[in-house]
Design brief:
The longest helix is centred in the middle third of the chain and has 19 residues, at about 335-355. The chain is α/β, with parallel strands linked by helices. It folds into four domains: about 1-80 and about 145-230, HAD superfamily/HAD-like (Rossmann fold); about 80-145, Hypothetical Protein Ta0175, Chain: A, domain 2; about 235-460, P-loop containing nucleotide triphosphate hydrolases (Rossmann fold), CATH 3.40.50.300; about 485-565, no CATH class. The protein is elongated. The chain has an eleven-stranded mixed β-sheet with strand order 14-13-23-22-21-15-20-19-16-18-17. An eight-stranded mixed β-sheet has the order 5-4-3-2-1-10-11-12, with helices on both faces.
């Protein structure tokens, strides 16, 4: 369930001539019974609303006075969200004989008195705004509107704007409709409201709200996914530049990002994550190797020496705006898959209650969700919805995780192998070749449910370079695939360096023949470039490898100095 909350205006939307029909009340009751929440956002004064609508108990929160007052029907508590009406303004309005109704925060009148009201505001030099609601004219402190009121209500409920569908009819509804994930205008709404809404109901007023309730209950508004493009995420640009970007719905299925090591998977994913942050979506990133350390919008848990605390992660994710990065370098390699399995129930619990985190991102998915993994009943469906799986080997990722994938992004020159491996795991036909050959850092993207062939794209790159935390590479535990192995010319050895510190220790003691074999093959610079992602260190190592006159002892010393000069704090 993605849309957890229905936010609705009252007059002209929920109500016709101030009254709500029994059919509409029944629809609201069924929405509430489904586990969703109801929020009313109205310009009415609270006493007036209570007098005409005895069913306020159905709503979890009520925003009255056009955003100035928050009411909790369950406890009958009221909370003002702005300053009370200005006394000088109220006094002058009375002296001039301008009719008005006084609320806790709002002064309300009606047309044609708006010009007189504006003159009073100008004459007094007050920081007040005039808001129109068809024939009504409301005066509130600047910056207070239905949008700010709805934000306050959702903050108390712990719900993200992205999990809200809102419905309204008039000018003052723009402020909250533009914030929610799905904005709906009833059939009788003003033309400007209809024009800006994502969806327009077929029926007017309460009948339109009932129509929306039925669609919400029947399929969680899945039929509206295509029109909901305001928050679409760009996956890449077509090379020809003529047909626009390739987009995805942030409410869509899971994504597989695959390619060889060093092909640009992490860079492409960072570009997606930055867009999610910009639009206010929450993500939880599982980072086994510390590759995303320093991704500043996310709160980081775990270090190279300390395991992340799943309960602390869950507490952090209770805030709709807080994304989380889970650094697993402090978890031993063999224990990482088990750690993720223990974390999934926490994610499941959160998504059941809040539909968040909106996205779960799992790096090294072939290791954390291996093909042998068989989830316990009930731990998979919601926990792995809207997941980005990042891997070198799709064929080694658990089938239950891959079955949720709707989009495959194959990075670099192994695209055809990626599609074939994925299709084999989920038992479908791969796209037919021959396929385009993407350039370095570019990709082929395949929408699994589409009959179209994969498209070549230029992936969206991160706007800022990710800061790689050097201590992670110095002291953390890299996977076997990322580790350096001293094997020698006859492969008699199998000495694994799972970080830079171990690499230097082994380099000091390994025999000359083995050291020289890897030196002349350029294996050291290759590892620094592909795995450590340190171009400068790789360049220095290449100069040492290319100097045939240098003694083996000097080459060992120079390699050590190059590593220590860049990672001295870590080693």
């Amino acid at each position: 369930m993605y849309f957890l909350t229905l936010a609705t205006d009252y007059d002209g939307t929920l109500a016709a001539d101030g009254r709500v029909s029994e059919k509409t009340i029944d629809a609201l009751k069924r929405v509430r019974a489904s586990g969703r929440k109801l929020v009313m956002v109205t310009g009415r004064h609270l006493p007036d609303l209570c007098a005409v609508f005895p069913h306020l108990y159905l709503f979890d929160r009520v925003i009255a006075e056009n955003g100035g007052l928050l009411y909790r029907p369950g406890t009958h508590e009221e909370k003002t969200l702005s300053e009370p009406p200005n006394e000088r303004f109220v006094l002058l309005m009375r002296e001039l004989g301008i009719p008005f109704a006084l609320g806790r925060t709002v002064v309300a009148t009606w047309k044609p008195h708006e010009e007189a009201v504006l003159k009073v505001i100008r004459d007094l030099g007050l920081d007040l705004q005039v808001i129109f609601n068809k024939g009504a004219v409301m005066v509130l402190p600047s910056g207070v509107n239905k949008g700010t009121g709805l934000k306050a209500a959702l903050s108390e409920l712990g719900i993200s704007m992205h999990n809200v569908v809102g419905i309204g009819d008039a000018e003052n509804d723009h402020a909250f409709l533009r914030l929610v994930e799905c904005s709906v205008a009833v059939a009788n709404a003003l033309p400007a409201v209809k024009e800006r809404a994502d969806v327009v109901t077929n029926l007017p007023r309460g009948e339109g709200v009932t129509e929306l309730c039925e669609q919400l209950l029947a399929g969680d508004l899945a039929q509206f996914d295509s029109p909901l493009k305001r928050h679409a995420i760009t996956l890449g640009e077509r090379p020809d530049g003529d047909r626009g970007p390739v987009m995805m719905s942030p409410r869509g299925g899971s994504i597989l990002v695959a390619g060889r090591s060093g092909s640009g998977k992490s860079t492409a994913v960072s570009g997606i994550l930055e867009q999610l942050v910009e639009q206010g979506y929450q993500f939880c990133l599982i980072d086994p190797e510390g590759d995303y350390e320093g991704f500043s919008p996310a709160l980081s848990f775990g270090t190279a020496k300390e395991e992340p605390d799943p309960k602390a992660v869950e507490r952090a994710l209770e805030s709709p705006k807080q994304s989380v990065l889970i650094n697993m370098l402090g978890v031993t390699l063999d224990e990482r898959p088990g750690f993720l399995v223990s974390l999934l129930p926490h994610i499941q619990n959160l998504r059941t209650r809040t539909a968040r985190p909106h996205w779960l991102v799992i790096d090294e998915a072939h290791h954390l969700l291996p093909a042998s993994w068989s989830p316990a009943a009930g731990t998979l469906p919601q926990a792995l919805e809207r997941t980005i799986l990042i891997t070198v080997h799709p064929e080694h990722v658990a089938k239950p995780a891959l079955r949720a994938v709707e989009i495959v992004i194959a990075i670099g020159d192994s695209a055809e192998d990626v599609f074939r491996s994925f299709a084999g795991q989920v038992e479908i036909q791969p796209p037919k070749g021959p396929l385009p050959q993407p350039g370095p850092g570019d990709a082929l993207i395949w929408f699994r449910s589409s009959v179209s062939a994969p498209m070549e794209i230029k992936t969206i790159r991160s706007s800022g370079e990710r800061m790689r935390h050097r201590r992670n590479y110095a002291e953390g535990e890299l996977s076997p695939e990322q580790s350096f192995f001293f094997r020698g010319p006859q492969r008699k050895l199998n000495l694994r360096a799972h970080n830079l510190q171990t690499f230097l220790q082994l380099a000091e003691g390994v025999d000359d023949e083995t050291w020289n074999f890897h030196l002349r093959n350029g294996d050291y610079s290759s590892w620094f470039r592909r795995i450590i992602k340190d171009e400068e260190l790789a360049r220095q190592a290449e100069e040492i490898e290319a100097d045939a006159a240098m003694s083996l002892e000097d080459s060992r010393q120079r390699i050590r100095q190059a590593v220590e000069s860049r990672y001295t704090a870590a080693v």
